[in-house]
Design a protein that fits this description.
The longest helix has 17 residues, at 6-22. Helix content is 54%, strand content 3%. The chain has one domain: Orthogonal Bundle (Cytochrome Bc1 Complex, Chain D, domain 2). A two-stranded antiparallel sheet has the order 1-2. The chain is mostly helical. The N and C termini lie far apart (62 Å). The chain is globular and about 45 Å long.
Length: 133
């Protein structure tokens, strides 16, 4: 008979406990989920810096979303218009965790050459939530 690794049991329990937060439906709930997963509070200033800086690749987040993500952006290679990223200026943003994860995965890879950490996602989202009308 095979023995189950205690780590697998603990990890499964942790995922089960976090799953309601991971599928949060508002930007604030998603921020709370990312902060919980990161194990540290988000820092908006760090998110703004991450958003506007290059990280070893050709683009930064602001290349397409502009340094003021309260306005339309434009994709750097396709020219496609991108609706404002800040939730106060586009209420559809950060309302679907699956979409949020999809775009973080794609865009972090374009900007950083890797997936963003939960802490990085929390920081960027915290900064975007500071932008008000």
């Amino acid at each position: 008979m095979k023995t189950i690794n205690p780590f697998v049991i603990a990890f499964s329990a942790l995922l089960g406990a976090l799953s309601p937060q991971v599928y949060a439906g508002t930007a604030a709930e998603q921020l709370a989920a990312y902060s919980t997963l990161a194990g540290t509070p988000a820092q908006a200033a760090r998110g703004q810096q991450l958003f506007n800086s290059r990280h070893g690749k050709e683009w930064s987040c602001s290349t397409c979303h502009t340094s003021a993500p309260s306005a339309d952006g434009k994709h750097a290679s396709t020219g496609k218009v991108i609706a404002p990223l800040a939730p106060a200026f586009n209420p559809e943003r950060f309302t679907d965790m699956a979409k949020t994860e999809k775009w973080f995965r794609r865009n972090c890879n374009d900007v950083m050459g890797r997936e963003c950490t939960s802490s990085e996602k929390a920081d960027v989202l915290a900064w975007l939530l500071t932008l008000k009308r």
